[in-house]
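User: quick one, sequence for these tokens?
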């Protein structure tokens, strides 16, 4: 049976409401998403920012702030540090970007004293529910890591596995993508894809199935796999994770899906102490709510893993 964001939200309700710390919360779109997340039983929020502006915006969107904790901090940088410290100290289960530029938001994530560093690599995961594709698709990395090395790709895979598990995919099929599905020494991406496959087969990477290099059609279209005679592949149009060779390929595919299909999606930053919700100004209200739900189930998965 096809899984989707309704299932993810149902999982949140099973594990109980989480708390999200919002950095510089005086943003209409973010407050609308936070309001909806609480209404749906996904998450409470601690709103850090200019309290007067937060209350003004809340009144304009008919948002009852009863039950929301507000920490008044008009200074944007200080607000981001106070918000991230809540997640660092375990007072919030996830951390969300408000009306602050990405560079300064990430500085707070990486702050040595109050940030969310784990010593590992950070990477971005986007989860899509797309009509015509039977499984959720996990795209990585489409927004954060620019030109991942082989070692980076290993870390991206490791960061993505808890996200897959939190969404009900225990042993995800991971497709390291390339323009072709055969190894060509003149195309380093294909060589690295084959190396990732070997590492998985020999137990250096566990908890998943890796088959690469794979072209995009073989990764997501069973008919294409059949027509190309790819019956010996571990992935035959049923990949769960699309691992991109660089940010250009990932971002182009991400935007093509967003703007050309009737999809649902949610995105988080991983490799951090708690999930980080790094949505774009152009993301829809529904994407922001889905991202909060995604972060909530991943936060629960991380808590289970640490128990």
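Assistant:
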């Amino acid at each position: 049976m096809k899984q989707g964001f309704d299932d993810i939200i149902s999982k949140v309700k099973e594990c109980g409401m989480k708390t999200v710390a919002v950095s510089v919360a005086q943003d209409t779109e973010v407050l609308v998403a936070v309001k909806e997340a609480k209404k749906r039983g996904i998450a409470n929020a601690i709103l850090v920012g200019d309290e007067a502006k937060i209350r003004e915006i809340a009144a304009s969107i008919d948002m009852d702030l009863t039950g929301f904790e507000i920490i008044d901090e008009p200074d944007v940088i200080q607000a981001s540090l106070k918000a991230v410290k809540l997640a660092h100290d375990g007072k919030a289960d996830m951390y969300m970007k408000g009306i602050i530029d990405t560079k300064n938001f990430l500085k707070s994530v990486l702050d040595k004293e109050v940030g969310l560093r784990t010593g590992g690599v950070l990477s971005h995961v986007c989860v899509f529910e797309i009509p015509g594709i039977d499984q959720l698709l996990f795209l990585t990395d489409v927004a954060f890591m620019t030109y991942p090395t082989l070692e980076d790709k290993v870390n991206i895979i490791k960061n993505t596995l808890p996200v897959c598990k939190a969404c009900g995919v225990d042993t995800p099929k991971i497709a390291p993508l390339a323009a072709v599905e055969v190894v060509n020494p003149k195309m380093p991406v294909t060589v690295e894809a084959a190396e990732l496959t070997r590492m998985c087969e020999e137990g250096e990477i566990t908890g998943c199935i890796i088959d690469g290099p794979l072209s995009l059609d073989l990764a997501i279209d069973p008919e294409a796999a059949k027509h190309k005679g790819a019956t010996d592949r571990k992935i035959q149009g049923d990949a769960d994770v699309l691992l991109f060779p660089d940010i250009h390929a990932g971002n182009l595919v991400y935007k093509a899906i967003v703007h050309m299909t009737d999809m649902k999606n949610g995105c988080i930053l991983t490799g951090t102490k708690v999930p980080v919700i790094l949505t774009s100004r152009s993301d829809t209200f529904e994407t922001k709510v889905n991202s909060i739900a995604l972060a909530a189930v991943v936060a629960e998965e991380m808590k289970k893993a640490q128990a």
